[in-house]
């Protein structure tokens, strides 16, 4: 009897879920839900661990909504270098008014 009760509960759960997901407004909500951690083209996959010389940088881009949060510095040669957002030297560079925040990149980079 315990097995049939568990089966019945599972069947009710599956039926309820399928009915809710078949409604048009729920399909739109489900379609907008994130599949996982944000790994869009502007998220960093590799990080530079040493301090970058300030004189080589022309700006930075935010990637703080990614996991892990990051700052991408753009060099004067237009190379993007990912750094950890929490690093002290990164925080100091972000306070520099001469280092502008650049618009998001349209290309994928690591």
TrEMBL record:
In Gene Ontology terms, what is a biological process of this protein?
Answer: inflammatory response
- Gene Ontology CC entries for this record: extracellular space
Q: What are the protein's UniProt keywords? A: Cytokine, Disulfide bond, Signal
Q: Boundaries of each Chemokine interleukin-8-like domain copy? A: 40-97
Question: Which Gene3D superfamilies does the UniProt entry name for this protein?
Answer: 2.40.50.40
Q: Which residues form the signal peptide?
A: 1-21
- Look up the domain of life of the source: Eukaryota
Entry GO MF terms: CCR chemokine receptor binding; chemokine activity
Q: What is this protein called?
A: C-C motif chemokine ligand 16
UniProt organism field: Ochotona pallasi (Pallas' pika)
Its organism's taxonomic lineage begins at:
Eukaryota, Metazoa, Chordata, Craniata, Vertebrata
């Amino acid at each position: 009897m315990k097995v049939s009760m568990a089966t019945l509960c599972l069947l009710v759960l599956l039926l309820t879920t399928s009915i809710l997901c078949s409604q048009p407004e729920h399909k739109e909500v489900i379609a907008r839900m994130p599949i996982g951690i944000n790994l869009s083209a502007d998220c960093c996959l590799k990080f530079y661990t040493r301090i970058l010389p300030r004189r080589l940088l022309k700006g930075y881009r935010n990637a703080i909504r990614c996991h892990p949060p990051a700052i991408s510095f753009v060099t004067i040669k237009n190379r993007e270098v990912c750094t950890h957002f929490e690093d002290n030297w990164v925080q100091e560079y972000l306070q520099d008014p001469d280092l502008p925040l650049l618009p998001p990149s349209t290309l994928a980079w690591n």
